[in-house]
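A student in our group prepared the protein record below, which I am reviewing. Here is the record exactly as it was handed to me.
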Amino acid sequence: MADHDPADQYKKDLLLSDRSVDDSLRMAMHYVSFFRKIGSMTKDRFLVDLPEIVSALDHFPDLTADEASAHLFDLFQRHARSVEDVIARGASEHAGPLFRGEVPAGSLLATCFARGDRVEIAPSSNYDQHVTAFVDRLSAPILEFAMDHGAGQVLFHGGYCLEGANYRFVNALIESFRSAKRTRSEIPFMTPHNVAATMEVSEQSMRQQLRRLRDALDPLAVMLGIPLDQDSFIETKERAGYRLNPAWHEIALGDIQPPNPAASQE
């Protein structure tokens, strides 16, 4: 459709324009990160992580629920491959500017390759793999948070915080996270029933709140300069439940940058 919808008529280039001055980088990163996750999903995980898909399966009169789910899964997978192809072509076409640091840091293409949780293109040699791993170690984001139980907040570097029901969800998982960290053991998953009971809500309300919490973390991705997918802070495991991602570290309140009230989100 390029002949009918030329790129030069757009205000910003999809991959190369600096998006750091507005909210469009957050949206673009979330979009790419979402379909990166979709591309690696099994069909069963697809239906678990996107329960709204399940609710739509009975609305295709000519298809059984299994047939409808297969068609929808294929649709999402094909689009995920299209997103990957766009990023891969962009990386190939602009390899030189990317290497020389000439692509704006606030662009979608630079963000995809600047941090550890990025859209990856298969390297052509082990040399490229070693170089990529080295750069990743240099640019690894700081994954730290602090719990302010008095104020009912989860605080992050950059002045961002979670409050209200989002705080209560994290608080329901924090004790098992702390206990496992103290003993250097595997952080256990908490069943949906137990999370909901701790929050004193229904399981359906709890799952809806988890989706809102993950959406609320999008601005944090911009502050850290990385795409955060749905498992980046709170992990979901089929038939096991939820836990705080072991990659994160809880630190003291005094070690968090002073919060900016305008940066909080319910």
Confidence is low (pLDDT under 50) at residues 116-125, 259-266. The chain has eleven helices and seven strands. The CA atoms of residues 168 and 244 lie 13 Å apart.
